[in-house]
Amino acid sequence: MSILFPKSEKLKSTKTIARLFEEGRSITEFPVKLIYIEQKTEQKTQAAFAVPKRNFKSAVDRNRIKRQLREAYRLHKLLLSPNTGKNFAFLFLYIGKNKPEYVFLEKAMRVLLKKLRNENS
Hints:
Shape: globular
Mean pLDDT: 92
Order of helices and strands: HEEEHEH
Helix content: 25-40%
Strand content: 15-25%
Radius of gyration: 14 Å
CATH architecture: 2-Layer Sandwich
Largest sheet: 4 strands, mixed
Low-confidence stretches: none
């Protein structure tokens, strides 16, 4: 598993995203909530990132938080053990009400990925 975050690892399928909300399991480490399902058809684990418009009216703020979440995921996705043979679809949802500092997002991402690894090992 590479430290890059290529296009093939970005979750864009509306059907898969709908399945995430219907069937997905979740783990929360404030201020980030991870919703995930196991994928049988995809060759790679895919991830999407969301920040609710209700909490952040400005698109600039939403985009900055999503950029920070993507960077934290890119750096720490190696915490998931790539040898299990399982592929997942992830949706990282920012649930905080204030603009976060990157350090807190990175810590929450690390904890979430470790919890996920422990649940599915």
